[in-house]
Design brief:
single chain, 139 residues, alpha+beta, 2 helices, 9 strands, globular
């Protein structure tokens, strides 16, 4: 079962326009009670006019949190308190930049689905380091 943003949002990066949506996936167990399990938050990106598509998947795992009826849609984080909101353009831009730095090319014809957590770790570490640098400069 999947749930996603109704309309792709636009993100301008230089001369390129990217479209992105946030979605939520989960499996439903069989039986009369039908329980949800294996919740995953997804961020799908594509550049206008290019065939490629990137799907970052944030699944629940030890120390990793995704919406499961308790958290807001688009919230992904760690039990240590580090969070990103996949509905925020700044978070999307940071993840896009990191994916491109790691070799994702929107010109490639195939859709690429990958684990988003390694990008999350790098993006949030960079963000936290930037905040620490700003705090040190203001002291």
């Amino acid at each position: 079962m999947a749930r996603s943003s109704r309309k792709a949002r636009r993100l301008i990066v230089g001369d390129a326009t990217f479209r992105w949506t946030v979605g939520h996936l989960h499996d439903v167990t069989e039986g009369p009670a039908g329980r949800y399990q294996d919740c995953r938050e997804t961020l799908t990106l594509r550049r206008d006019g290019a065939p490629g598509r990137l799907v970052l998947v944030f699944g629940g795992a030890a120390g990793r949190l995704v919406p499961d009826g308790i958290l807001e849609s688009g919230a992904v984080g760690t039990t240590g308190g580090t969070w990103l909101n996949l509905h925020e353009p700044g978070a999307v831009r940071a993840l896009l930049d990191e994916a491109r730095a790691r070799g994702w090319r929107p010109e490639d014809p195939a859709a690429t689905e990958t684990d988003g957590w390694p990008l999350f770790d790098t993006v949030t570490a960079r963000r936290d380091a930037g905040r620490s640098g700003t705090e040190q400069q203001s002291n």
